[in-house]
Write a structure and sequence with these properties.
This protein is an alpha+beta fold. Helices cover 71% and strands 9% of the residues. α4 packs antiparallel against α5, α5 packs antiparallel against α6 and α11 runs antiparallel to α13.
C-alpha cells in the first residue's frame, strides 16, 4: 500500500448508507426485538427477576446505538477527531460491561468496533484501534491461540472486505452520477440546438416580415403627412401610426421570444423595469435573486405583459405596482393597479391576448397558480410558479 492508501478516507458515497428498504427495516426491528428477548431470557435464567439489570442493559444498548449512529455521521463527514472519540467511547463502554460481568456483550461490542473501524476510518487510525479491540476480545474469550488467531483474522478480513465493497459501491454511484450529468448535458445541448433552429426560422419569416411592414408603414406615414390637412387624411394618418406602433411592439416581442429560445434573456427584474418604463408604475424585487428556469422566466414575462396590456385597456393611467419575490422553491409575481376596472368575466374574454384564462393555463402547466380579481381599489393578479 502507498502512503495515500493509509491516510485517505473512504469516499463519502461509500460511507453513505443505501436507502432503507422494507426488508432492512424489518431486520432492524428484529435485531432490537432479539436484544430485548435476550435480556428477558437472562433475567429469568438467573432464577430471579433482575429487572433493574435488564433496564440498565437496555439503556446502555440504546446509548451505544445512538453513539454508533453519530459515529456513522461523523465518518461520513470525514471528521477524524469526533469519529475517534466516539469509537474510543464505545470501547470504554465495553470495558465497563466487562467489569459489570457482561463479558459476552463486551466481546460483541469490541468485535463491532474492530470491523467498523476498518470499514470507515483511514487505515492509519483504524489499524491501532482494531488491534486494541481484538487483543481485548482475545483476552476476554480465553480461547486457544489457533481459535483466537482465526477469529481475529476473520474480523480483520471482514472489515476490510466491507471497506472495499463500500468503495466499489461509491465508485458505481459516482459513475452513474457522471453518466446522468453527461446525458442531461447532451439533452440540453440538443434542446438548445433545436431552439436555435426554431429561432432562425422565426427570424427569417416573422421578424423580416415585421421589419418590412415597419418600413412600408413609415413610408406611408411620411407620404400622408405631405398631403394637406383634412379629416380623411388625419384619420388615415392616425390608423397608420397605430399600425406602425403595433408592428414595432410585435417586432420587439418577437426579438424577446428569439432571445428566450436562444437562452439569451435578460434577468426578469430588468425586463420588468424595461416593460414598465414610461408607465406610472413601481417595480420592487424581494428575496435572493437567482437564475430562473426558462419556462418560469417566460411565464413571469408573459403574465406581466398581459397584465400591463389589460391595465392600459381597462384602467388607462392607473398606477401599477409590480412586486417580484424569489421564494425558496418558487417565484411570485404580484401586479396591482389603482384604477377602476370592468368585471373580471368581461376582462377574461376581451382583447386578442391571453386573458385571465390563458395566463392561468400557462401557470398551471408548470404546476403553479394564478389568482386574479378586483380589490377595494383596482385589480390584482397574483402568480406563483415553481422555479
Amino acid at each position: 500500500m502507498n502512503r495515500g492508501t493509509w491516510t485517505s478516507w473512504p469516499s463519502r458515497e461509500a460511507l453513505t448508507p443505501a436507502p432503507r428498504t422494507p426488508l432492512r427495516a424489518a431486520i432492524g426491528r428484529f435485531v432490537w426485538a432479539a436484544v430485548f428477548a435476550g435480556y428477558l431470557w437472562k433475567a429469568f435464567a438467573d432464577g430471579r427477576f433482575a429487572l433493574w439489570q435488564m433496564a440498565i442493559g437496555l439503556v446502555v444498548t440504546a446509548g451505544c446505538a445512538a453513539v454508533g449512529k453519530e459515529f456513522f455521521r461523523t465518518t461520513r463527514e470525514h471528521r477524524l477527531g469526533p469519529s475517534l472519540g466516539l469509537l474510543v467511547l464505545l470501547i470504554a463502554v465495553a470495558f465497563g460491561a466487562l467489569e459489570a460481568g457482561a463479558g459476552a456483550a463486551a466481546a460483541v461490542l469490541w468485535c463491532v468496533c474492530a470491523v467498523v473501524a476498518l470499514e470507515r476510518l483511514p487505515l492509519f487510525a483504524a489499524v491501532p484501534l482494531t488491534a486494541v479491540t481484538l487483543v481485548a476480545y482475545v483476552v476476554v474469550k480465553g480461547d486457544g491461540w489457533l481459535t483466537s488467531v482465526i477469529t481475529a483474522g476473520g474480523l480483520c478480513l471482514g472489515g476490510y472486505v466491507l471497506r472495499l465493497d463500500a468503495e466499489a459501491r461509491g465508485s458505481s454511484q459516482r459513475l452513474l452520477a457522471q453518466e446522468r450529468a453527461a446525458r442531461e448535458a447532451e439533452a440540453g445541448k440538443a434542446a438548445l440546438a433545436e431552439r436555435s433552429r426554431i429561432a432562425r426560422e422565426i427570424h427569417d419569416v416573422l421578424a423580416h416580415s415585421l421589419s418590412a411592414q415597419l418600413v412600408h408603414l413609415e413610408a406611408a406615414r411620411l407620404l400622408i403627412e405631405r398631403e394637406p390637412s383634412a379629416e380623411f387624411r388625419d384619420q388615415v394618418l392616425e390608423r397608420v401610426v397605430a399600425a406602425r406602433s403595433m408592428a414595432r411592439e410585435g417586432l420587439a416581442e418577437t426579438r424577446q421570444a428569439l432571445s428566450a429560445l436562444r437562452g439569451e434573456m435578460i434577468p426578469v427584474e430588468d425586463f420588468l423595469r424595461q416593460l414598465m418604463a414610461g408607465e406610472p408604475a413601481e417595480v420592487s424585487v424581494a428575496g435572493e435573486r437567482r437564475q430562473l428556469t426558462a419556462e418560469a422566466s417566460q411565464t413571469v414575462r408573459r403574465v406581466a405583459q398581459e397584465v400591463l396590456t389589460n391595465t392600459r385597456k381597462h384602467a388607462p393611467g392607473a398606477v401599477v405596482t409590480v412586486r417580484l419575490e424569489y421564494q425558496p422553491d418558487m417565484v411570485a409575481l404580484v401586479v396591482r393597479d389603482a384604477g377602476g376596472r370592468r368585471p373580471a368575466g368581461e376582462l377574461a374574454v376581451s382583447g386578442s391576448g391571453y386573458g385571465l384564462v390563458g395566463m392561468r393555463e400557462r401557470a398551471e402547466l408548470l404546476g403553479g397558480t394564478l389568482e386574479a380579481g378586483p380589490e377595494e381599489e383596482g385589480f390584482v393578479v397574483n402568480l406563483r410558479v415553481p422555479a
